[in-house]
Amino acid sequence: MIIFEKIRWKNFLSTGNSFTSVDLNKNHTTLIIGENGAGKSTILDALCFALFGKAFRNINKPQLVNSINQKNCVVELEFSIGRRKYKIIRGMKPGLFEIHQDGNILSQDAASKDYQKYLEDKILKLNYKSFTQIVILGSASFTPFMQLAQGTRREVIEDILDIQIFSIMNSILKIKMTELKDKLREFDNKIEVGKQKVKLQQEYIKQLEEDQRKRAANAQEIIENSQRIIESLQQENDALEQQLEALKNSTSDEQTIFNRRTEMVGLFKSLNQRIDAAKSQILFYEEHDNCPTCSQSLTGDLKITTIEKHTHKIEEISDALEKINSKLEGIEARIDEISIIKTTIADLQDKIVETNANIISEQNYIKKIQKETTAEFESEEVLITQKNILKEIAKEVVSVSTERSKLKEDSFYLDAASTLLKDTGIKTRIIKQYLPVINKLVNKYLTAMDFFVSFELDEAFNETIKSRHRDDFSYASFSEGEKQRIDLALLFTWRTIAKMKNSASTNLLLLDEIFDSSLDANGTDYVMNLLSTLSEDTNVFIISHKSDQLVDKFSNIIKFEKYQNFSRIA
After folding, report:
1. In this structure, how many other beta carbons lie within 10 angstroms of the beta carbon of residue 344?
2. CA-based angle 56:58:60, to the nearest 5?
3. What's the rounded Cα separation, in Å, for the pair 166 and 174?
4. Which of 512, 491, 527 is nearest to 141 (CA)?
């Protein structure tokens, strides 16, 4: 049983920045009164917001934040289930959602939606629809059970009877059946592929035998032809090697020639420098009459003798240069000849490499043919291997077929389970067992409110209502006051069933303005008498404008008022 103990809120709807706090487990009956707009019904929205993240009334979430302060909207709710103490803190601007258990905050690693699902499935064990059917009856956006769609009615009763597990099982079963169908489809594909493999393997074995016969006939001829090519290439290679050796021998003087050229070039440069020096001396004596060093006069005979001497030396060196130049031309010619020979050698070496590569290629081809020929001699073993592969493929097909048969058997049992878990299956049988109790309780509460009709829900949750005179009615045909009595009777019934099942049982019951609109004085008295029969562990909160008629019937009164544009408890 969920024992709601305390709720408080601030900056929520018309409430200001100070917490408004209400004890939920202190008084058996509490009357909440106040003028219109004073904030009486805020407790309903705060309770639903704390538990489910949305208001009880039709209010958009952004509008829940106080329009004046516009921030720090917080609702805190404390309750216990057995020995566990829980506290939920939920807020906006900034966003906040915490679940505390025995003083410790529960992990928030999961997404907010998963955190909410954990709260509803693992802790509360009821959702928004079920909560508003057994805890709150309001005149605002509340949809009475009789106005819910048939599918929603089923969800509410399944939650109350704690049989929603069958719906969960059915969902899991559908997933398993989908997976099973996928596996069956996969196995069918494997079997078909296996059959194709068998067919292809048989054709391959047949083709292998035929190919072996053909290759055996041609193998020797191919090998002999390659051997002839190798012999021809080898002869060509030998000739190239001889030619290469001769050319290498013809360039044996290469280093000597290069050395001589270096010597000649050096001598040539030295002689040219001596000619330049002699010419410089001649030019000096031709241009000067006095020595620039000692200032002595240079006589004509000395100048003539010296110029003739250097001129003779230039002639001798020039003759030597002509001889050296002639030798250099011969050396350069030999170097050019050696260069041509080396180019020819490189070409021959490339040809030899190419010929050797062709020889190796032909040798490898012969090895390949010989290997294939050897395989031909082992053809019986190859065929045996391929036939064994064929047997393995066939075994695999048989194995997959056996697995498929097992899956088909599983599919039969899953289909049977699916029939049981459908809405028309085991859940309907359970609901059928509870329907007499439900109908009996509804009629009991209707009688207690002086509304003498026979009310009955069938297994599809359609109502049959008959008067004392056995006239048939529908829910829609009654007045608003009569509808409200039916809604109250169903509300008390769901609470009683929930308590019997201990599925969604709570200590809290909130009735919003049910005395203010459609119930007459007698109806109000009947409802109050009905409330007085509730057990001591039920805390009833009535929100009403009829304070003058109801004030003396409650053990506790809370009055809300507006003060400086904010709601507060007076």
Report:
1. 14
2. 105
3. 12
4. 512
Return d(Cα 89, Cα 10) in angstroms, integer. Answer: 12
513: nearest Cα among 566, 561, 538, 550? 550
Closest of 559, 539, 540 to residue 548, by C-alpha: 559
Element (H, E) at 220: helix 164-250
Comparing 234 with 377, which gets the higher pLDDT? 234
* pLDDT tens per residue, range 489-539: 887 787 777 777 655 678 898 888 766 555 556 656 666 766 766 667 789
319 pLDDT above the threshold of 80: yes
Q: Say which amino acid occupies 179.
A: E
167 touches 427 (CB < 8 A) = yes
> Which two structure tokens, joined as six digits, stand for 524?
């109000």
Read off the DSSP letter of residue 106: P
Q: Where are the domains of the chain?
A: 2-150+502-569, 201-387
pLDDT for res 567:
92
Which ranges of 136-163 would DSSP assign to H, the alpha helix? 150-160
**Mean pLDDT highest for which of 21-25, 31-35, 410-414?**
21-25
Asked if the model's pLDDT at residue 240 lies above 80, the reply is: yes
Range in 86-100, 394-408, 535-549 the model is least confident about: 535-549
Q: How far apart are CA 38 and CA 568, in angstroms?
A: 8
Residue 14 near residue 37, CB atoms below 8 Å: yes
Residue 61 DSSP code: G
Of 3.40.50.300, 3.20.19.10, 3.40.50.12780, 3.60.15.10, the CATH number of 2-150+502-569 is: 3.40.50.300
**Calculated CA dihedral for residues 363, 368, 371, 377, nearest 10 degrees:** -110
Dist. CA 473–CA 496, nearest whole Å: 26
- In the Cβ-directed half-sphere of 391, how many Cα atoms lie within 13 Å? 6
Rounded Cα gap, residues 89 and 316, in angstroms? 120
CATH number of 201-387: 1.10.287.510
Q: Which helix (H) or strand (E) holds 99?
A: strand 96-101
Main-chain phi, psi angles of 149, to 5 degrees: -65, 160
For tokens 């200590």, name the residue.
Answer: 507
* Phi–psi pair at 423, nearest 5 degrees: -60, -30
Going by C-alpha positions, the residue among 554, 511, 550, 568 that lies closest to residue 140 is: 511
Using CA atoms of 294, 297, 298, 301 in order, give the dihedral in degrees to the nearest 10: -140
- CB–CB of 79/2 below 8 Å? yes
Question: Which of 63-72, 143-152, 357-366, 445-454 is predicted least confidently?
Answer: 143-152
Report pLDDT digits (tens) over 198-214: 888 888 878 877 777 77
* Radius of gyration over every alpha carbon of the chain, rounded to an integer in angstroms: 56
SS3 560: strand
pTM value surpassing 0.85? no
Q: Is 21 left (phi over 0), alpha (psi -120 to 50) or beta?
A: beta
